[in-house]
Amino acid sequence: EALMEKITYQAFNFTRRGLLEKHKLLVSSMLCFRILARKKVIDAEELDHLIKGKQVAEIPHKPESLNFMTEGMWAACKALEQLPCFPNFCQHMESEALQWKK
């Protein structure tokens, strides 16, 4: 475990030196997500939603209170509801629409 941490850190340091400043955060995040996924700290499906921005295939009707959202945003929210960690996400958005609009 300690050897793996040292190798990962050294690989990151060598990679970091060759990157532009604006890309360092992106590469750091990607490396962090990969490490957490391999250690099974982050669920693979949740990580897919975060990185790919999954959407439902058939976009359901969007309530009038959420007109500030685009159809793509609404489809992504409906896709998030399929994950166990976001139960009733869209119902909460509908009931707290003013808060979400801010």
Looking at this protein, list some descriptive labels.
102 residues; 6 helices; 64% helix; 0% strand; mainly alpha
* Secondary-structure-derived class: mainly alpha
Number of helices: 6
Most strands sheet: none
Q: Could you give the order of the helices and strands?
A: HHHHHH
The total count of strands amounts to 0
Extract low-pLDDT stretches: none
- Distance between the amino and carboxyl termini: 45 Å
Q: Would you spell out the secondary-structure blueprint of this structure?
A:
Elements: H1 2-17, H2 21-38, H3 44-52, H4 71-80, H5 89-95, H6 97-101
Task: Compose a concise summary of this entry.
With 102 residues, the protein is mainly alpha-helical.
Care to describe what's here?
With about 100 residues, the protein is mainly α. It contains six helices and no strands. It has helices at about 1-15, 20-40, 45-50, 70-80, 90-95, 95-100. The termini are far apart.
